[in-house]
């Protein structure tokens, strides 16, 4: 039998916690104020403090893409940034892309192509795809696959995800040429 | 013309809008007032005893409310049976925070509850714990000689049938023989949504529990029995589950911890697990399989020997049907099947998509490929020659079996006829091309399920059953069944699930939901239909007077006579005409055991795979897959296709990537995160084609459905391994087929 202690003793006095402060975030076009400590991630700020639970947590480590949101039009993993770092930025979450009554073309295409099953990765996939469209780098199926590979779908809906994005991409192209 | 026939139509998901807009709420997303957060502390050691927990240091941190551990858990239910859930295997279920004893690595040893998630997480990271550590054993390969025949097992487990014929002599005398060992490591379900429970404290020990589960009723009975609460006081809600794959069949420990903390603190509490902690409970067990097959000169199977040794925990005997399939997929008179377990210091394994069959079919279908080569036959032709027309295990006819059609239709779609048999004979530029085939068989089962149906005066129908939606399309197919049965437009129908306040439905698993809950929904709607007909007959000048339920059909918003469809009553008019606001009916359905027990009820599939291998780099790409499935009636080809697409992705994952790598020195899975536990991403998935072979079956259940969630995974990993052999001449029997094994 061996003795094992997991950690060194804590220094005393007890650890001081970071103080909370007022952080103002611009989310889906609306200014929102919240009292949070600086160690709060953007993802937790959305889900736990603002009740914007459309943005999902699948790993909290930047490994799955479920937490993808748009910051100034760019897709980022919201679990890898602190909320305070995004003051002044334009943040768009899935709730800002469309509503059940007024779906974004990608949301409609995801429904039409059955591009999800459990739906848990879906908001991240759609936000990611929205940025992919504006980035303008993906032109072929292979490029869509490559550039959507930061978003894991454990249900394995990839075939339909690609089909949905392709459809929106082609319609956009057609519209641009008209 | 009927406009309300929905069954069998490719219908878009009715819960689609909620899912694509983020409106669908999962367990950790109910932000109830005054919520506290629990963060789980996982054991750093694998086996031993906790000697001290330095709780005081943590309680001194501002915002920390309490630290729960075995030291301060109140006295709870004592008997093992109180901790048994619906699918608990034989043995003694794990009790969180029960004693100082540590039985497996990352065992939950404490939960720190604080005002915010951030404080709970931070404080949990600081909690010091002293352990006395004893030696652990986590290596199945070191336990080859310690296997034992499991006793009780769990629901659904069938001990392998007794040997038939003369398996030893037959193997010895066979013209062609293959034998080998087949291995896969532990695999973890890893649904996208991590396990979480939000307990809303409603005062006076009344709880509303939002749980991630595949069975709200299972969670409810678990909580009520352990904490001595009445069912009226514990409502479990699970409207959306972010993936299950079996992981939610048993209540996970965050449920216990959240309920405990809520009851003790008299406050609402949420406990979410981390992705790392998703590796601290049930998993597909590490399994070693030995297969020996023999064939006669004419290519018929002479003998099948299949043995499996699987890991289980020290406290429960987790069993799955691994070897049984090998006695029924092909015709063979000399068969020996055996199954053993070995105890390790790990958590009890858990059903994971196509449990047992995914494991068994991987080995059997590779061995069949090897034997086909030995016998000089095309692997598809070899399978056709050994087609089983009857289930020899059970000695019963199949209620229906269209596997032959799966072979033919799949092969035609894939272009199998163009395959040249020799390994390394097909190329695409510098890449080697390989084509492989595999397949499998899976149970079609039905459980008892209840439902209720209620029609409102405005013509809206609400149907309820406490089932689950884990991504399989339950909301959608139940809405289709209800709408068609009542002859109402889809938009007029709402289906509710995932709530213990609703009629009871079985766990969402075993591919039985469509058959079970679907039959329950149909029964409730039929009961409502009969009541509605009676009311319609009371209407003035009713053309339906004097007829019975059998004489009418519900279609296009009307009840009309089969014999003369012009004689009809508009459904919307019936309640107002009778001065009624609402009409309700209950129904439930159970399998017709007397009829079903005379048959073997199974779904089948055949899968064809193309791989391209870059020999210099050892990389394999699965470029094309055709999966032909015979699973009875397909209620919704759109969602069913997605189920099979997902299964193929799972098969690719199993073949090429998935492996929970145990460091036996620590007794811990070392790749316990989403970056190192590999699953396919978008770029890994190429063309996948799904073929549904028509199969009519009125024995399996009145709806004729066999379930589609699991069968599509069978044989995929084997077909890939067989394709890799065809491409490279290298036979890989140890999954995953990683680069190193090919170089
Ligand atoms: S939760 Fe942010 S990447 Fe997984
Ligand atoms: S839809 Fe379930 S993880 Fe993508």
UniProtKB/TrEMBL annotation, chain A:
CDD domains: fer2. Pfam families: Fer2, Fer2_2. GO terms for molecular function: 2 iron, 2 sulfur cluster binding; metal ion binding; oxidoreductase activity, acting on the aldehyde or oxo group of donors. It comes from the Bacteria. Gene3D superfamilies: 3.10.20.30, [2Fe-2S]-binding domain. Keywords: 2Fe-2S, Iron, Iron-sulfur, Metal-binding, Oxidoreductase. InterPro entries: 2Fe-2S-bd, 2Fe-2S-bd_dom_sf, 2Fe-2S_ferredoxin-like_sf, 2Fe-2S_ferredoxin-type, 2Fe2S_fd_BS, Aldehyde_Oxdr_Iron-Sulfur, Beta-grasp_dom_sf. Residues 21-97 form the 2Fe-2S ferredoxin-type domain. This is 2Fe-2S iron-sulfur cluster binding domain-containing protein. The lineage of its organism: Bacteria, Pseudomonadati, Bacteroidota, Cytophagia, Cytophagales.
UniProtKB/TrEMBL annotation, chain B:
Residues 144-170 are annotated as: Disordered. GO terms for molecular function: iron ion binding; oxidoreductase activity. SMART domains: Ald_Xan_dh_C. InterPro entries: Ald_Oxase/Xan_DH_a/b (IPR000674), Ald_Oxase/Xan_DH_a/b_sf (IPR036856), Ald_Oxase/xanthine_DH-like (IPR016208), AldOxase/xan_DH_MoCoBD1 (IPR008274), AldOxase/xan_DH_MoCoBD2 (IPR046867), AldOxase/xan_DH_Mopterin-bd_sf (IPR037165). Residues 21-135 form the Aldehyde oxidase/xanthine dehydrogenase a/b hammerhead domain. Pfam families: Ald_Xan_dh_C (PF01315), MoCoBD_1 (PF02738), MoCoBD_2 (PF20256). This is Xanthine dehydrogenase family protein molybdopterin-binding subunit. It comes from Hymenobacter elongatus.
């Amino acid at each position: 039998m061996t003795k094992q202690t997991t950690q060194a003793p804590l220094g005393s006095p007890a650890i001081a916690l970071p103080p909370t402060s007022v952080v103002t975030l611009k989310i889906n076009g609306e200014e929102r104020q919240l009292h949070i400590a600086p160690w709060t991630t953007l993802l937790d700020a959305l889900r736990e403090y603002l009740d914007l639970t459309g943005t999902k947590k699948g790993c909290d480590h930047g490994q799955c893409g479920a937490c993808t949101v748009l910051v100034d039009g760019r897709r980022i993993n919201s679990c890898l940034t602190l909320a305070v770092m995004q003051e002044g930025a334009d943040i768009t979450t899935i709730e800002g892309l469309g509503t059940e009554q007024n779906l974004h073309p990608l949301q409609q295409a995801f429904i039409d192509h059955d591009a999800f099953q459990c739906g848990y990765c879906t908001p991240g996939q759609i936000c990611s795809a929205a940025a992919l469209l504006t980035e303008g780098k993906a032109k072929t199926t292979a490029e869509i696959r490559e550039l959507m590979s930061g978003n894991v779908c454990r249900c394995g809906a990839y075939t339909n995800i690609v089909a949905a994005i392709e459809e929106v991409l082609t319609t956009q192209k057609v519209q641009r040429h008209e | 013309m009927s406009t309300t026939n929905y069954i069998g139509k490719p219908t878009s998901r009715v819960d689609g809008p909620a899912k694509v807009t983020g409106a669908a709420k999962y367990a950790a997303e109910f932000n109830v007032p005054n919520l506290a957060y629990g963060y789980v502390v996982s054991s750093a050691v694998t086996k031993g005893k906790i000697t001290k927990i330095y709780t005081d240091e943590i309680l001194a941190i501002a915002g920390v409310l309490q630290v729960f551990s075995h030291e301060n858990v109140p006295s709870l239910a004592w008997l093992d049976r109180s901790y048994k859930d619906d699918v608990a295997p034989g043995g003694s279920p794990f009790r969180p925070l029960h004693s100082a004893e540590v039985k497996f690595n990352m065992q939950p040893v404490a939960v720190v509850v604080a005002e915010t998630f951030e404080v709970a997480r931070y404080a949990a990271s600081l909690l010091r714990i002293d352990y006395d550590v004893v030696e652990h054993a986590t290596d199945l390969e070191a336990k080859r000689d310690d296997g034992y025949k499991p006793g009780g097992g769990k629901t659904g487990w069938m001990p392998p049938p007794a040997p038939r014929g003369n398996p030893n002599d037959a193997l010895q005398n066979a013209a062609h023989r293959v034998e080998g060992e087949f291995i896969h490591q532990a695999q973890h379900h890893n649904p996208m949504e991590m396990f979480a429970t939000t307990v809303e404290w409603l005062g006076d020990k009344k709880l509303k529990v939002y749980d991630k589960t595949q069975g709200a009723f299972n969670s409810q009975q678990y909580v009520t029995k352990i904490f001595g609460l009445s069912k009226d006081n514990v409502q479990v809600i699970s409207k959306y589950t972010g993936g299950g794959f079996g992981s939610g069949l048993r209540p996970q420990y965050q449920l216990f911890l959240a309920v405990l903390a809520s009851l003790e603190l008299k406050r609402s509490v949420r406990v979410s697990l981390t992705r790392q902690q998703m590796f601290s409970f049930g998993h597909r067990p590490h399994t070693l399989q030995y297969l020996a097959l023999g064939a006669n000169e004419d290519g018929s199977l002479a003998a099948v020997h299949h043995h499996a040794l699987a890991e289980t925990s020290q406290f429960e005997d987790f069993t799955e049907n691994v070897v049984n399939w090998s006695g029924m997929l092909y015709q063979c008179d000399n068969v020996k099947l055996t199954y053993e377990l070995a105890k390790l210091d790990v958590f009890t394994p858990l059903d994971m998509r196509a449990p047992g069959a995914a494991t068994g079919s991987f080995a059997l279908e590779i061995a069949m490929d090897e034997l086909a080569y030995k016998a000089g036959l095309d692997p598809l032709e070899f399978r056709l020659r050994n087609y089983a027309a009857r289930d020899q295990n059970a000695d019963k006819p199949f209620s229906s079996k269209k596997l032959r059609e799966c072979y033919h239709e799949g092969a035609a779609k894939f272009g199998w006829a163009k395959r040249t048999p020799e390994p390394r004979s097909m190329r695409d530029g510098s890449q080697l091309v390989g084509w492989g085939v595999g397949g499998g068989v899976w149970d079609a089962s039905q459980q008892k399920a209840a439902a209720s149906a209620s029609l409102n005066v405005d013509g809206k129908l609400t149907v309820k059953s406490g089932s689950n939606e884990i991504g399989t399309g339950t909301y959608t197919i139940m809405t289709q069944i209800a709408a068609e049965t009542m002859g109402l437009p889809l938009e007029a129908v709402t289906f509710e699930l995932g709530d213990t306040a609703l009629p009871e439905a079985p766990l969402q698993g075993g591919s039985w939901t469509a058959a079970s809950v679907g039959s329950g929904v149909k029964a409730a709607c039929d009961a409502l239909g009969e009541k509605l007909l009676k009311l319609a007959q009371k209407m003035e000048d009713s053309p339906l007077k004097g007829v019975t339920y059998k004489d009418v059909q519900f279609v296009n918003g009307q009840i009309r006579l089969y014999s003369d469809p012009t004689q009809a009553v508009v459904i919307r008019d019936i309640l107002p005409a009778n001065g009624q606001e609402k009409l309700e009916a209950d129904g439930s359905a159970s399998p017709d055991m007397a009829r079903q027990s005379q048959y073997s009820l199974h779904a089948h599939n055949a899968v064809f795979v193309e791989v391209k291998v870059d020999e210099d780099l050892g990389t394999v790409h699965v470029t094309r897959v055709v999966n032909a499935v015979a699973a009875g009636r397909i209620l919704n080809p759109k969602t069913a296709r997605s189920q099979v697409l997902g299964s193929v992705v799972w098969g690719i994952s199993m073949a090429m990537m998935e492996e929970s790598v145990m460091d036996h020195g620590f007794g811990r899975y070392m790749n316990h995160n989403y970056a190192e536990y590999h699953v396919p991403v978008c770029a890994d998935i190429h063309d996948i084609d799904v073929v549904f072979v028509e199969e009519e079956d009125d024995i399996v259940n009145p709806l004729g459905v066999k379930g589609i969630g699991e069968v599509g995974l069978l044989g995929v990993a084997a077909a890939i391994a067989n394709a890799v052999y065809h491409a490279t001449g290298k036979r890989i029997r140890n999954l995953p087929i990683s680069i190193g094994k090919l170089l």
